[in-house]
Amino acid sequence: MRIDIVSIFPQLVKTVGEFGVTRIALERSILELNFWDPRDYCEDNYRRVDDRPYGGGPGMVMQAPPLAAAIRQARSAGEGRVIGLSPQGSPLDQATVERLAGERALILLAGRYEGIDQRLLDMEVDEELSIGDYVVAGGELPAMVLIEALVRYLPGVLGNEESAQTDSFSTELLDWPHYTRPEIFEGKQVPSTLLGGNHNEIRRWRLRQALGQTWLRRPDLLAKRFLSEEERLLLNEFKEQLKGQESS
What Cα–Cα distance (Å) separates residue 173 from each residue in 152, 180, 181, 220, 231? Predict the structure, then answer.
């Protein structure tokens, strides 16, 4: 997969490729990252990419010409769909990540300041995405979040391909609790089901916990999900167990 990033701070985004699964993807040539700095396409000696907003108001707005030139150069090299990272975008969720992971190439536009000239967005951007209902200084961190989320779905990156399919949100459920050695830590023991070797019981325990954790923390996700008969039974078991713990 080829990802081109348009940013005035390319060095910031480059760090996402220095660690973890993104580094592995780059080393294995599964992922290619390219960077385009709009300042390189400025026509003035000051390499200025922003100006005061028409109509007045605080802050500065990124200008269309240098951004357009950088995006078009990236398009000519990679022909990717242009994704703008913006608080005004659609919420980034797992379904969107899986959809975008199927693209051969993407161009990520990281804005700064108060925003980007709307004409540039209308002319050059195919889709806008937001990583949450809050504001950060620019689109670089959201771009890094998206890159790392995408990389997990590229074949050959994860040591266990099943990991991406069982992550939180992949099944519209939160993840189940995880345990590893030692078996007892400061008096707290690993649940006995996980030590018994019965794969079906382990599967049911994990599903019960995933359903229960989602019910407790993100009931909105459960409201959107059709529950099978087994899932309804397991969720009821979780609720009964929780009542028993609270009353004891």
Answer: 18, 22, 26, 10, 11
Q: What is the pTM of this model?
A: 0.88
The Cα 189–Cα 183 span in angstroms is 6
Q: Are 88 and 118 in contact (CB under 8 A)?
A: no
| 8 Å CB contact between 104 and 1 | yes
CA distance 108 to 63: 17
Residues 207-245 pLDDT 10s? 999 999 999 999 999 998 899 999 999 999 999 999 998
Chain-centre distance for alpha carbon 199: 31
Among residues 98, 148, 167, 237, the one annotated as catalytic is 167
Is 114 labeled as catalytic in the residue annotation? Answer: yes
The catalytic residue among 87, 98, 103, 148 is 87
152 among known catalytic residues: yes
